[in-house]
Specification:
This protein has 89 residues and is an alpha+beta fold. The chain is built from 3 helices and 5 strands. It has one domain: first zn-finger domain of poly(adp-ribose) polymerase-1 (2-Layer Sandwich), CATH 3.30.1740. The chain binds zinc ion. Zinc ion binds next to helix 1.
Length: 89
Amino acid sequence: MNILTDKHVLTRKPHLCWGCERDFPAGTTLRLVEAVNTEGFNRAYWCSVCQSVIADWHPDDCEFITRGDVKYVDPDIWEQYRDEVEGIK
Ligand SMILES: [Zn+2]
């Protein structure tokens, strides 16, 4: 795994979050990670909720997370983080 880019970007197009598969419109700040591994080039966007879950639960293995798994492996925990990060709607 070779990380090429790891930064926060203000998106210019809609993007799916890799961790929860939610759709975010253009103009959202997301974390962009671009990397090269044995399977080739990979680009992933992460929302602030998934970033918090990863920081606490998967600090060293974020490249092994299957798309959507930050949310679907344990939806209750993910929802708790969403309440904290985004507020209860
Ligand atoms: Zn997310």
